[in-house]
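Work Package 4 report. The design task specified in the project plan requires that, given a folded chain encoded as structure tokens, an amino acid be chosen for each position. We show below one input record used in the internal validation round.
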């Protein structure tokens, strides 16, 4: 089972984002024995900004005409059923490397099969101080457009800690990975059908306005 691990850090060298993502990967591998992890660090690829010409939406063109590594990244995710996405918060929102990639994926909006779409997703957001939750929320319109289903999330802030990797943050990310893995396993092997409980009908009660029988002495 193929799972994309998308790192949205903007640091060329391994970063806290990568550490947290690896923790989530270890969690999903615990639950999915045949997991094939496709790691993608967006910053390692040359992905130019969308030029807004919308020629990619023309049926006669059918693709983005910018020549860079975008199509290569799309092909790397082909056949994936799930995604782990980890990102830092730099200015209260998604990092620009991810925003650019989101906009470039617009070129597939008219396709029946959308790259990075129709997946179950686990999401990890971290920051130095706060604003992780609003950044997480800004991802959901993109997930909905791609018909993705987020099944687990972790938001962690560094605050006064010197190294976020030495806190409980990696354990939270392992839990995100395990939740994603368990969701995939349930989809692959649904639980046996449970016996339906008998339907118990309650005694009919008089409704407002119904005539009530009168009793002697009442």
């Amino acid at each position: 089972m193929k799972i994309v691990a998308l790192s949205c850090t903007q640091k060329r060298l391994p970063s806290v984002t990568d550490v947290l993502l690896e923790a989530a990967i270890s969690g999903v591998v615990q639950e999915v024995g045949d997991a094939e992890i496709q790691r993608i660090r967006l910053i390692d690829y040359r992905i130019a900004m969308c030029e807004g010409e919308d020629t990619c939406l023309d049926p006669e063109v059918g693709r983005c005409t910018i020549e860079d590594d975008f199509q290569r990244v799309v092909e790397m995710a082909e056949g994936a059923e799930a995604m782990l996405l980890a990102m830092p918060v730099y200015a209260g929102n998604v990092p620009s490397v991810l925003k650019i990639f989101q906009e470039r994926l617009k070129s597939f909006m008219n396709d029946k099969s959308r790259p990075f779409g129709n997946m179950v997703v686990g999401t990890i957001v971290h920051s130095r101080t706060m604003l992780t939750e609003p950044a997480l929320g800004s991802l959901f319109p993109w997930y909905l457009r791609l018909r993705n289903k987020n099944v687990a999330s972790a938001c962690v802030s560094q605050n006064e800690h010197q190294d976020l990797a030495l806190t409980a943050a990696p354990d939270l990310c392992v839990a995100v990975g395990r939740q994603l893995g368990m969701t995939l396993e349930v989809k692959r092997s649904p639980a046996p059908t449970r016996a339906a409980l008998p339907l118990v009908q309650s005694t009919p009660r008089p409704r407002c306005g119904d005539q009530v029988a009168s009793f002697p002495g009442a």
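The helical segments are 16-31, 70-76, 96-104, 132-137, 140-145, 169-188. Validation will be extended to a larger panel in the next phase.
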